Amino acid sequence: MGAGLAQGLTRRGPRRLHRGPLGLASVAREQPDLVVLDVMLPGLDGFELLRRIRATSQVPVILLTARTEEVDRIIGFTAGSDDYGTKPFSARELALRARAILRRAEVPDQAAADRTLRFDGLLIDPDTRTVTVDADRTPELSALDFDLLVALAQVPGRVFTRRGLIEHVWGNDFFGDERVVDVHIRTLRRALGDDASTPRFVGTVRAIGYRFLARPAG
Questions:
Q1: 76 in the Ramachandran plot: left (φ > 0), alpha (ψ -120 to 50) or beta?
Q2: Domain 6-105, what fold?
Q3: What is the C-alpha to C-alpha distance for residues 101 and 98, in angstroms, rounded to an integer?
Q4: Contact 144, 63 (CB under 8 A)
């Protein structure tokens, strides 16, 4: 898969597009199950294309780039990507990443859908995959950020290591740096309006990992 490539995976098979505007129109028209998006696209770069996709769709997106700086990963996750891969990469790795994301994006079973999580200032609805903050704000979360929040909120107070969160959210077939957890915690906090220095919902346990802080609603 070369530079300048957007690929949508649909039930009819993959569709490759080599320009950003064409990719945006294709997502709207074909509603793919997964988008693999190169950052370096002519006409409209991958970051901007992702932002425009997120304005109307929560389709899972994997960003691909030759850039390795942390700031680029943060930009990608802030724009709404579900995963971020750097070149060069193997077809097997990409397939595993795609399989893991599609598995997470599946509709939860009925038993899980009925387990709404209620806390002081926060409501998490697994059925609609929505979050409500302070009863009046519903921030948009990527699929990974939502799953990360649920993993933490299901066991309030428990300290999770980065590796533990990766096993819960990304799965055992995850390829990449454990610091991806830190990047997603930042985007999750930003979406929730949570201040890292005085957090309400997600706290940092220095040198270990993270834990959920909010109390169950009485």
A1: alpha
A2: Rossmann fold (3.40.50)
A3: 5
A4: no
Length of the chain: 218
Distance CA 127, CA 112 (A): 8
The closest alpha carbon to 184, from 155, 158, 209, 205, belongs to: 209
At 19, is the pLDDT very low, low, confident or very high (cuts 50, 70, 90)?
low
- Locate the domains of the chain by residue range: 6-105, 110-212
Class of domain 110-212: mainly alpha
Q: What is the pLDDT of residues 91-118, one digit of tens each?
A: 887 888 888 888 766 655 444 445 789 9
